[in-house]
Design brief:
Layout: E1 7-9, H1 14-22, E2 27-29, H2 44-67, E3 71-80, E4 83-85, H3 91-101, E5 105-116, E6 119-131, H4 136-144, E7 165-169, H5 172-176, H6 180-189
Parallel strand pairs: 1-2, 1-3
Antiparallel strand pairs: 3-4, 3-5, 5-6, 6-7
Helix pairs in contact: 3-4
Length: about 200
Amino acid sequence: MSNRETVYLASESPRRLQLLAQIGIKATVIPSKVVETKLPSESPLAYANRMAISKAQSGWCNSARIFALPVIGADTIVVCDDKILGKPNNKKEGIAMLTTLSGRVHQVITAVAIVYATQVRQCYVESEVTFATLTESEIETYWDTGEPCDKAGAYAIQGRAAAFITYLTGSYSGVVGLPLFETVNLLREFGVVVLT
């Protein structure tokens, strides 16, 4: 399989699509109908891994099996004090999340799964992100840009929130939504040739 061939991405995230294109992977988005609800007593890592696998399997069942191409599923979560900070439902939640992250270190876990027929390969990357201490005015102004509204943890590291990040340990692309090094290694197991 050459890098000119398509893989499927069971995600509507434009950021993941852009990240794959960055390394020469042409991906077609396919639907993945997965209810993203954490189970009782499920750890954040277990949740992210389960979601990634579920999305990839759902995508395979929906359409990829017709064309026999690998399906990538991924899930990115922001974790602070062992609590998952999802996408804010409103301004109050978004400001509360940004206030929680202000001046602190938090974790970003991105799990990736690739499904092809009965084969499943999976990995995850955990990164640590340090936020500067933000003023109430900075938080309000950032929220008003509209950027945080549909982002886990109410921020986008690849966007304006880059101005808040003082330190990052781990995978930058993983924080954006898809750890490229690890994803490439998984794709190679399915014969997808990258950067040739």
